[in-house]
Every structure is written in structure tokens, then in C-alpha cells.
Amino acid sequence: MAAGPHEQHKLSDPDNDVRHLHDSKVENPVLRWIDQRMPVISMIQLEYGSFPTPRNFNYFWNFGALAMVTLAIMIATGVILSMQYTANTHLAFDSVERIMRDVNYGWLLRYAHSNGASMFFIVTYIHMWRTLYYGSYKSPRELLWMLGVVLFILMMATAFMGYVLPWGQMSFWGATVITNLFSALPLIGEHIVTWLWGGFSVDNPTLNRFFSLHFLLPFLIVGVTFLHVVALHITGSNNPLGIEPKTKKDTIPFHPYYTVKDSVGIVVYFIVFAILVFFMPNYLGHPDNYIPANPLVTPAHIVPEWYFLPFYAILRAVPDKLGGVALMGGALVILFFLPWLDGSPVRSMRFRPIAKWLFLLWTVNFFVLGWVGGKPAEQPYILIAQIGTAYYFAYFLVLLPLLAKFEKPLPLPESIASAVLKRRGGGPLPAGATAKPMEKA
Amino acid sequence: MRRPMFNLIPTLKAAAVAAALALAPAALDTGARAAEGGPGSGHDVIRIPDTKFTFDGIFGTFDRASVQRGFQVYKEVCSACHSLRQLSYRHLTGIGLTPSQVAAISSQFQVQDGPNDNGEMFERPARPSDRFRRPFANDAAARAANNGALPPDLSVMVKAREGGADYMHALLVGYEEPPPGVTVMEGMHYNKYFPGHQIAMAPPLNTDGQVTYADGTTATVDQMATDIASFLAWAAEPELEQRRAMGVRMIVFLTILGGLVYAVKRKIWSNLHGE
């Protein structure tokens, strides 16, 4: 029943202190009726349709959408797997094997889920790298970045507990090593570990609570992701030039331009995902996790999943247990302070001639840390890990603050549009300004 | 005029492609792999020789005849000590046996069932739906019968060892006299491919013709080792052929879809040119 003109006016009068229906532009009467009362259609149109987006994204700007796709896949496969999985130390390993053999397409669900975790970290690491390189964490996007760090830590916790569930040797010993880290805390450490375990060793109560938390945390990730996206849509996206859009010429509507560009990325992502799942499903795993958990036999080398290796290297870099735990925690916590450690007003590393190289070195250093994290804790790996850890922290704590003072940035372009059109248009151009094929398309 | 800048994105792209190209053969190749020695063996790296299997590579499939012969070796040799507890007899249709052949095989084994109406456990011939009968009632019984060593379950052994089926084959043909200066502990055997080289399992395949193959294949030790490795590869990954076939279809589909989506993207973005 449509309201009369007089009533309609009153309801939607913004000066009136009364709640009013949304002024919907949707033409279909049924959808308009819904949209007036719950303006999700308007919201999608506003935030994903006409949403003004910098016109110069390169393909690094696909990875947020890819992380969202991965989250959806992980929840979908995970919910179905949980219908078949049994969280009991005597049954867990066999229930996973039953999924692999007797559940219809169970092998596909499980391999998609286990490799999906790797895809999640690949995508998230690239997403974070993009943020660091193009300075997307700087004002006014500090909170957006901090929510992202929260998401990363939640992901790590979720992945760690998920890896425990199949109850193989690496599950059990990984859980033992990681939970034991809390014992490094003075006085209360031992009590916390007993409390985490629900007993005096990693055992059935531990497995049960890890399963429960592994189911819970992804929904917290969904919630924080929502906040992350809300924050993004207030500030808008950063872009490879790191300068804010000034006029309408600098932006294009999100749809169709970035919906279709994200679609290209999503198909490529699925190709990589499919190669992992269908042709090398155990390549990123460890063979020892196909040995049922045995508290009496310690594996020769306990290694975490590949995505934890850089942080594992930092943990083992110092001989002191508490020191190692503090450094590993610090390696994550320091990320929260990054917007204030990096005082340079220039966002994109393209215009920071010194910071760019030091950051690329930091990137290489991160890979080196990952490599030594998978090696036994002996020389020369310990020394390499120590140097790597020192550089990891020095970059944030010393180099970035100093660069903000002493680095002379290159001149920034006037606007996004002028930079894009200059590159595209004819005429003699500086050599470095041509040939950026990934952005040209 | 600005100096030419280091062009990051194409460089990264090239690096990613190079890394992918380097990674793919390393991962897909089931060729020679190194297994690291266990504790106490120092870091002597053992090269596992590459065995040619029909299921190697991305298009590889199981050789049904070899897998069936491997099952025969398992039944007549390995199953004396090693369980295969994730498998049921009905799964054997996956290696090309008919349901009636499977029923004939399962009926050769007695399994415990019950309790019956009188509350007693009883023995009956196994049905295809039963799990493979285990050689020992429990781990303690298995250890008691094997000098204190526990023969591991073989269901996912191929996935649980570095080198997979190549390692299985190598281990079974890798028994030899210890090199001079190496003393083998009481009850242990020297094997050049086992981490640490001292293995509790006595050489299970030691004479040619130990098994008389139904299909007339000559049962050399190497042949038997290849066949049992094939059977165990199937036992660990019965979905392998379906998985790869689906993967090929997925990649073809996604590649075509990707081409189409990219064409659409180019078309849509061409609207912006000259703006």
C-alpha cells in the first residue's frame, strides 16, 4: 500500500526527527517496497555499482576480492567437512580418511579446504605486500590497515587450529610446540598452558576445543571483514600512485570496470587453486601428517605449515624462549603501529627512491626468513635467522622513521587522470613512464 | 625530466612466471627425491632412485594389472604383519575386480562379529563391506610378535613418506650387506634407502618367484616391489585418476573462461580510451 503524498513527505523529511523510509530510486515496485524499508539494493548500487574508484588500479588490487572469495570457499567446504569429521583423538585421523575415501567427493572437499588455507595465505600475503608497497596503510586508512592486521592474526589462529584437526604427527607436535610457547610467560605460563590444553598434555580436550574454535573463528573473520570493508568504503581505495582522486576524471564507477577486472583475477586464481587441488594436493603439506599422532614418537623435524615459517624463524632466532616468543609476537604487533612509524607523506614507493629498495630488501628478507624457518635450528641457519629478524624489525623501527626525515621523494603527478592519460597519449615520454602493461589494459 | 624508474610490475611478473615454471616440474615430477636421514644419521642425504610408474605425471593412471598383482603380494606377503585398516574389501572394485571377485576374496577371511542373541562373539566369513582383516588384535600383540617393533599400517604409507611410491620400491629392493665398519644392531637389517639404514623389517621380498602371479608375469623381486608400490599408491590415493581427470577438465574450462572474461574486460575498458 503506497503512502499518500503528504504522509510520504513527512516520513522522509530529514529535518524531522522522525524515522523515515529510505528514498529509493529502484523502479520495480516490489523491490522498491523492500528497498524503502531495508535499503540493501541502494547500498549495493552505491557501494559496488557507482562507487567512484581510482581508474589506475593494477592487478594487485584484485587480492582483497580474492581473499573474500577464499573465505567463502573455506566456510562452504569447512561446514560440509564438519558434518563428516569426528573430533576425538581415537577417531579423528580415520574420520578424515573416511572423508577421503567414502564420502562423495570428500577428497575434493578436503583438498580444497587444506589447499584453500594455503591459497588464503598466498592471497593475503600479496594483499598485505601491496598495502606496504603502495603505502595504503597511511592516513586516512590507518584503521582499515589495523583491521586487516586483526584479520591476519585471526587467520593464523584459525589455520593453526585447523591443521591440528586431522590428528597426524605434525598436527599433534605442532600443537604441542605452539601451545607450549605460552609457558614462556613468567609465573602464570605453566598454568595457562594447562588451561589451554584442558589437561596436562595435548589430548582429547585440546582437540575438542580446537575444533570448536576452528568453527567459531571464521565467523569472527567474517565480522571483521565486514568492518574492514566498511572502513574501506569510507576512505575509498588507495591506488598505485598513492595520490587521492581530486576530480571525477580520476575515478571510474566500480561496476562494470572493476567487477570485470576482478573477474579476470578470480579466474586466474581458480586456475592456480585447481593446479594445487587436482595435481599436487599434498605438495604444500608435510608427509608426516599422514602418520597418526603418536605422543611417544617425536618427528625428526617439527615444522609448521609453510605460511608460518617466517614467524617460526623469528621465534627460533634467539636462544631464550621468552625472548623468542616476544619477538614473534612483536613481529605481528609492530604492524599495528606502522602508520605512525612511517611518517613520510608520500604513499607509493614509486616516488620513494630509497624506501623502495629497502622495502624490496625487506621482502627478500621475509622469504629468507621463511626458508630458514623450514631448516633445522642449527648453524648457519640460526645466524641467518638472527640477521633476518634484525632487519625485519630495523626496517620498521629505524629505517622508516629515518627515511621520513631524510629521503627526498620524487615529484608526484598532478592527478591520477593526468598520469594515466599522459602515459596513454602519444608524444615523447620519459622511458620509465611507458610500458606498464598491467595497468594499461 | 624524471629518471626512468625501476619497473616493478613486469619484473615481478617475470619472476612469478619463472618461479612457477621452476616449481611445477619439481612438484609434478615423481623423479629422484632426497629423503633426509633420521636422527642419529647425521645429515646424510639418501637419493631415492626414480621408478617408472604408469601413474607418474599429471596424466598418469594406474596399471590395473600391476595393482592387482600388488594386491596379491600384499595378501600373500605383507598382510602377515601389516594392516590396511582404511580399506574395505569392497574398495577393490577400484582396481578392476568385479563385485563377485571381491565377494570371493572377502569370503576367504574370517572376521569376528557379534554379539549374537546369546551375547557371544562369533567368527564368520568377511563380507565385501568389512574392513581388511588386521593381522594382529592390537599394537601390543603386533609388537610381541615382531621383536618389539610395530609394523605400521600401510593405508596411506605412500603419502606418509618422502618419495612416495619410489621410496616404497626402493626400500623393498634396498636390502644389502652392511658396508665395512657398520655394525647392525641385534634383530635389525641393513637397508641403503631407510633413514638411518637400520630397519627392523626383515627383507620381505627375497627370492624371485616368491609369489606365483596368476597372470603369468615373472615375479622377480624388482617386479614384486614395483607391483606392491603400485598397489599401495592406489590404496593411499584411490581417487587419483578421478581427481586428475577432473583437474584436466577444470583447467581447460577455466582457461577458456579466462580468455572470454579477459576479452570482455578489454572491451569494457576500451570505453575509457580517449576520455
From TrEMBL, chain A:
Pfam families in the cross-refs: Cytochrom_B_C, Cytochrome_B
Cofactor comment: Binds 2 heme groups non-covalently.
Main location: membrane
Annotated PROSITE patterns: CYTB_CTER, CYTB_NTER
Keyword Membrane: yes
InterPro entries tied to this protein: Cyt_b/b6_C, Cyt_b/b6_C_sf, Cyt_b/b6_N, Cytb/b6-like_sf, Cytochrome_b, Cytochrome_b_C_euk/bac, Cytochrome_b_N_euk/bac, Di-haem_cyt_TM
Domain Cytochrome b/b6 N-terminal region profile, first and last residues per copy: 30-241
Highest taxon listed in the record's lineage: Bacteria
Membrane-topology annotation of the record: Multi-pass membrane protein
Residue span, Cytochrome b/b6 C-terminal region profile domain: 244-414
UniProt cofactor(s): heme b
Keyword annotations: Electron transport, Heme, Iron, Membrane, Metal-binding, Respiratory chain, Transmembrane, Transmembrane helix, Transport
SUPFAM superfamilies linked: a domain/subunit of cytochrome bc1 complex (Ubiquinol-cytochrome c reductase), Transmembrane di-heme cytochromes
Membrane-spanning intervals of the chain: 59-81, 108-128, 143-165, 177-198, 210-236, 257-280, 322-342, 354-374, 380-403
Stretches the record annotates as Disordered: 1-21
Protein family according to the UniProt entry: Belongs to the cytochrome b family.
Subunit structure: The main subunits of complex b-c1 are: cytochrome b, cytochrome c1 and the Rieske protein.
Described purpose of this protein according to its UniProt entry: Component of the ubiquinol-cytochrome c reductase complex (complex III or cytochrome b-c1 complex), which is a respiratory chain that generates an electrochemical potential coupled to ATP synthesis.
PANTHER family to which the protein is assigned, alphabetical: CYTOCHROME B (PTHR19271)
The protein's name: Cytochrome b
